[in-house]
């Protein structure tokens, strides 16, 4: 009978009774007992209600028939999964914290060594920063010159125009980055105005608001890398610079954001005519390349998710139009993705005007020549409130000037023609990377980054080669002066070893671009992707591609800080919506 009673689960009243007594025990002060000290310690340790709870239940269910083996295994699996999850979360947090600590506490750096060759790098964009990332700065006296003292992650710039992402989240101060290099690097916030390749001098000018005693000077170089990117192409079309907004820099995105809000607020100003309301709320994007398409998609999202909610008066007149001179948008993507993009835009109510070339821009309208289905051309006026001009790249004046000095560059139109080692043709000791260089690749961040990384390897190898050659010369002198045959043989062995190393270092192949694919956001949480896969290509579009687009760009962000900020911005925009204030 006693056994049967023990098999019965403890009634809830007995549990509470046990708890009550435990509570009493917890609060009671124990008198010292004559027991041995360890037992005494055990006796006076207060028993916590949780422990009692566990003990009581363990006792109460001790005789309940055992669970099946499968259930136990399942439970064990869950318990381990749970533990592993926790462990990996803690390890991940530790890794990130250590990274942040290292980022915030840079080590002391040796000063630049002026006795070493001076390597001047122009620009702080994709090409130059990728070079700096991998360059061993101890090998050269490195000087960086750029009017922008930060790196900008351009692929997410269209998202800044509508406040999906804050611009600071995609900027990385160049100072933070340079402070982590092995040897210090000099940075001058200035524009290169001219390169004299024969004198080996770069002329620089401080174009920022604050200027000291010297605002223009010259910097001599032994080696020069030109990575100044490109400026916006306008093809000399009148009125573009005066009335259009570009999308290349952070200030451009800020200007666009302000203009969108200004147009919306002005459109609902008291007594505005209907025609004027329509004009103000007509957002025109010229250029159906990826910049124009991504911006149009972001703008329509902004309207759908936020603007029409907070300013319902603009609901019926807000309209986005994309104007493209060619028969279709996104010419670099595969046919099915072009069709998918055009279909998605139609659903989003974005109008695409293909075969329409803008010829003139005035303050309130653009004049465009469109070709009808019958091949007939006609000129029409399209009124606009916001005009974003995204028609590709043009040469920067400093690049054009350098090209004009070098006869071998006479036939190049789109930028500095370079050879397979990225050396500017016709100029010694000058290399070019990114959008300002012409090497038969599209002007993309991917190409610029790979070119920069290639140059870093090349320069590291060149420094190693020089170092080995000096060592070889010293060894050869030592061999001549060797006092005995044994010593001579030993030095000869070292020379052979070094020569082998020298051959290995010198064996560096030319630059080869590896295309990873193209990605573009097209709005309403959809993206298109042409991805290189094994020997073929995968073309995909839709919401899954959008998640891929987001994770790819998040992983490509410059630093952990950028990654965290971008992620927080996305969450913020999803939870609270985008900010519709004008600034
Ligand atoms: P940039 O990155 O433009 O850098 C040029 C640097 O030179 C800047 O620091 C600038 O301040 C500096 N500079 C300018 N003039 C001078 C001077 N006179 N002297 C010294 N320094 C100077 N590509 C992709 O592959 N994927 C994308 O998703 C993508 N999205 C994009 C989105 C937008 C909105 C834009 C505009 C471009 C995008 N691109 C993308 C293209 C990509 O940004 C460029 O191909 C890339 O920036 C080129 O790198 P770069 O180093 O040549 O020039
Ligand atoms: P783009 O050169 O790719 O496209 C510009 C478009 O403007 C062209 O299609 C051209 O036909 C059109 N155009 C030119 N003049 C016109 C006129 N007067 N009227 C109407 N249309 C006109 O330019 P982009 O989109 O600024 O891109 C520049 C570079 O940056 C490209 O190499 C691009 O691949 C790269 N980029 C890539 C991405 C991405 O991969 N997601 C995003 C942005 C930019």
TrEMBL record:
Pinpoint the External alternative NADH-ubiquinone oxidoreductase-like C-terminal domain residues. 515-579
Q: Which Gene3D superfamilies match?
A: 3.50.50.100
**Enzyme nomenclature, EC number:** 1.6.5.9
> Can you tell me where the transmembrane regions are?
80-101
The FAD/NAD(P)-binding domain extends over 118-452
Q: Which PANTHER family match?
A: EXTERNAL NADH-UBIQUINONE OXIDOREDUCTASE 1, MITOCHONDRIAL-RELATED, NADH DEHYDROGENASE
Name under which the protein is recorded: NADH:ubiquinone reductase (non-electrogenic)
């Amino acid at each position: 009978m006693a056994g049967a009673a023990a098999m019965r689960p403890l009634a809830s009243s007995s549990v509470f009774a046990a708890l009550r007594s435990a509570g009493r025990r917890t609060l009671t002060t124990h008198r010292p007992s004559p027991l041995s000290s360890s037992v005494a310690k055990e006796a006076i340790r207060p028993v916590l209600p949780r422990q009692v709870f566990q003990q009581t239940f363990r006792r109460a269910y001790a005789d309940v028939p055992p669970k099946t083996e499968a259930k136990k295994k399942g439970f064990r699996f869950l318990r381990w999964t749970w533990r592993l999850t926790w462990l990996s979360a803690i390890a991940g947090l530790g890794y990130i914290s250590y990274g942040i600590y290292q980022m915030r506490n840079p080590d002391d750096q040796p000063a630049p060594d002026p006795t070493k060759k001076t390597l001047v790098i122009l620009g702080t964009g994709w090409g130059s920063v990728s070079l700096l990332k991998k360059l061993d700065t101890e090998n050269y006296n490195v000087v960086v010159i750029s009017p922008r003292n930060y790196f900008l992650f351009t692929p997410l710039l269209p998202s800044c125009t509508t406040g999906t992402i804050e611009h600071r989240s995609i900027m990385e101060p160049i100072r933070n980055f340079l402070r982590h290099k092995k040897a210090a690097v000099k940075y001058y916030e200035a524009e290169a105005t001219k390169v004299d390749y024969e004198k080996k001098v770069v002329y620089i000018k401080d174009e920022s608001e604050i200027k000291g005693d010297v605002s223009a000077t010259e910097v001599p170089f032994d080696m020069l890398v030109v990575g100044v990117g490109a400026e916006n192409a306008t093809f000399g079309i009148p009125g573009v610079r005066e009335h259009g907004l570009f999308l290349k820099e952070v200030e451009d995105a800020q200007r666009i954001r302000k203009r969108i809000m200004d147009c919306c607020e002005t459109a609902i100003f008291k007594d505005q005519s209907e025609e004027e309301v329509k004009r103000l709320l007509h957002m025109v994007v010229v250029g159906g390349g990826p910049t124009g398409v991504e911006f149009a998609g972001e703008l329509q999202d902004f309207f759908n998710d936020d603007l029409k909610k907070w300013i319902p008066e603009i609901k019926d007149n807000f309209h986005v139009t994309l104007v493209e001179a060619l028969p279709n948008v996104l010419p670099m993507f595969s046919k099915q993705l072009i069709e998918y993009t055009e279909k998605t835009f139609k659903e989003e109510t974005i109008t695409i005007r293909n075969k329409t070339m803008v010829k003139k821009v005035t303050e309130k309208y653009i004049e465009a020549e469109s070709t009808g289905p019958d091949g007939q051309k006609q000129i029409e006026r399209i009124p606009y409130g916001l005009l974003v001009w995204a028609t590709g790249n043009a040469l920067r004046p400093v690049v054009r000037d350098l090209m004009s000095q070098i006869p071998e560059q006479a036939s190049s139109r789109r930028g500095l023609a370079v050879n397979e080692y990225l050396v500017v043709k016709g100029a010694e000791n000058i290399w070019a990377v990114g959008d300002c260089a012409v090497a038969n690749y599209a002007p993309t961040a991917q190409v610029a980054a790979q070119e920069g990384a290639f140059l870093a390897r090349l320069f590291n190898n060149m420094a190693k080669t020089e170092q080995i050659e000096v060592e070889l010369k010293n060894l050869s002198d030592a061999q001549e002066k060797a006092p005995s045959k044994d010593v001579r043989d030993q030095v000869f062995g070292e020379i052979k070893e070094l020569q082998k190393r020298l051959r290995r270092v010198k064996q560096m192949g030319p630059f080869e671009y590896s295309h990873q694919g193209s990605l573009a956001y097209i709005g309403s949480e959809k993206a298109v992707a042409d991805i290189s896969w094994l020997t073929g290509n995968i073309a995909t579009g839709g919401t899954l591609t959008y998640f891929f687009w987001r994770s790819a760009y998040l992983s490509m962000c410059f630093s952990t800080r950028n990654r965290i900020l971008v992620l927080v911005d996305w969450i913020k925009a999803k939870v609270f919506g985008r900010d519709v204030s004008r600034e």
